[in-house]
Amino acid sequence: MLSFSGSLRVFVALEPCDMRKGFNGLEALVADRLEESVQGGALFLFSNKKRTRLKVLYWDGSGLWVLCKRLEKGRFSWPKSTDPEAVKLRLRPEAFAMLCDGVQMQGAKFLPWYERDGEQ
Q: What is the pLDDT of residue 120?
């Protein structure tokens, strides 16, 4: 079962990546570009250039998880850094949940593409 602790660290790769990358390719990006250890227990988020796809790499203690999401419409509200040299950004777990649930980071409102059945 996949579960996350309350002290979860979440890192966002600010630059888009090739969404064809799998376990080894994403692990190499974590080590080379983000300069982190994949086995440190953090989530690592990657997106394509259009921000319509999201991949998450996570080490659960016994193996690697790769989770993917493809939006049928709209784009993820990808965070930006104030530092032009930054390659990663650390998010709070709540911000990760908002990003995945279609909440615009600035202003905390649902993006127009986000809909759930039965919700108005």
A: 44
